[in-house]
Design a protein that fits this description.
The chain has a domain of about 70 residues: Ubiquitin-like (UB roll) (Roll). The longest helix has 27 residues. It has twelve helices and 14 strands. It is an alpha/beta fold. Strands 1, 2, 3, 4, 5, 6 and 7 form a seven-stranded mixed β-sheet that branches. It has a five-stranded mixed β-sheet with strand order 11-10-14-12-13. A two-stranded antiparallel sheet has the order 8-9. The radius of gyration is 23 Å and the shape is flat.
């Protein structure tokens, strides 16, 4: 799975990247700190069945910390966008090709309204973050429209299925293509589509293949709460999460140095003999972020992107349903993420195609009960696949 971080310059994208991946991407209050994409690993969190079952798990493809299973996902942070990037301004839009295989996008905005269109500092609240989202969507649509236009040229004289194959690089399937054509009221003679037709199709492709969550960053700064409410009013159908990436990064680093204990939601000082300015800074984070919002929001973004935006579930496949283990005796070794309403056959395919080809039935290990191949799995299920192969 790949999640892309997008937004204009100087909104805290690289800070968010560092906070969620614990990496060291360059951070700076100036345009285009990020030029080459930063790539890292973040972790989606789900309840591990180990506590409920009173067993000691032995994770293989993930981690378990205090009964929380942490499942890795890939994160890419690309260069910042500016208005009219599709016309060559700023870094242009070619770097967006790094997002072509992204399953979802996180649109990072400055919720304090203290950076203008080009990412330059301005008075808090003087810039509308809704405009940042609109600019991003516009530039993404132009990027996708350009890809569509170039591939139509390749597919001229060919079928719709041929065009779909050319568009697989941006995750456009034939069903997505046909649904977009129906919504835009376009015929199959795609080589006759106008520039506006291409842009309309691109908008449909973006919504279908690049679902987006809005990250309202810098929520701890003045005017941010007003801007957050504006975002919610303007984009009511989008998931919007208040975030202070800078606070998350500061808390993680303080925890590493043994200054505080921090579990992602609660913080407590481990050393009272600290410089007054440091204590004041930590107290400010406690008051303005943790007390007010319950967390810095960074982990919430990852979890909501995976489980609410992409609507995935976590299933634990096993070979020994009595001991919840694989054939080596490793308990709950793997956590597999699948789309909602996935069946045991889909789980078998994810494990190995041969397992799916020889599928006979599955067993719900908790209930020690056989389940049908068309049964819908639920998040947290522990499932054994029985196959002829």
């Amino acid at each position: 799975m790949l999640v892309g971080l997008v937004g204009k310059t100087n909104v805290g994208k690289s800070t968010f990247f560092n906070a969620c991946t614990h990496a060291q991407a360059a951070v700076g209050a100036y345009p285009f700190t990020t030029i080459d994409p930063n790539k890292g690993i973040a972790f989606a969190e789900a309840a591990c069945p180990c506590k409920e079952l009173n067993v000691k798990c032995v994770p293989r493809n993930s981690r378990c910390e205090n009964g929380v299973r942490k499942i890795p996902i890939n994160i890419v942070d690309v260069a910042g966008l500016v208005p009219d990037a599709h016309e060559g301004k700023g870094m242009g839009i070619q770097f967006l090709n790094d997002l072509s295989q992204a399953d979802a996008l996180l649109c990072i905005v400055d919720a304090s309204g203290s950076t203008d269109d080009e990412g330059k500092a301005c008075p808090s609240g003087s810039h509308d973050p809704c405009r940042d989202v609109e600019i991003l969507f516009t530039e993404l649509d132009y990027w996708i429209a350009d890809i569509l236009k170039r591939n139509i040229a390749k597919a001229k004289g060919k079928t719709l299925s041929d065009l779909t194959q050319y568009l697989s690089g941006i995750r456009v399937s034939e069903s997505v293509l046909k649904e977009a054509m129906e919504e835009c009221e376009l015929r199959e003679d795609f080589f006759k589509w106008s520039e506006q037709d291409l842009l309309s199709m691109a908008t449909c492709f973006r919504k279908a293949t690049k679902p987006t969550l809005i990250v309202a960053n810098k929520i701890d700064l003045p005017k941010a709460e007003d801007c957050l409410n504006r975002l919610k009013q303007e984009f009511p159908s989008y998931i919007i999460v208040p975030v202070s990436a800078d606070s998350e990064l500061a808390l993680k680093r303080a925890s590493e140095k043994g200054i505080i204990s921090y579990d992602g939601k609660k913080m407590s000082l481990l050393n009272e003999n600290l410089p007054p300015k440091l204590i004041e800074a930590l107290n400010t984070i406690q008051h303005n972020v943790l007390d007010k919002y319950g967390s810095t929001g960074v982990q919430d973004v990852i979890n909501k992107a995976v489980f609410d935006l992409l609507k995935l579930i976590v299933v634990y496949p096993v070979e020994d349903e009595k001991h919840f283990s694989d054939h080596f005796g490793n308990v709950l070794p793997d956590a597999i993420m699948l789309p909602q309403n996935s069946t045991p056959v889909a789980l078998a395919e994810r494990i190995h195609t041969d397992l799916a080809k020889g599928f006979l039935y599955a067993i719900d290990a908790r209930k020690n009960m056989r389940i049908a191949k068309d049964h819908f799995l639920k998040s947290g299920d522990i499932t054994k696949i029985v196959s002829a192969r």
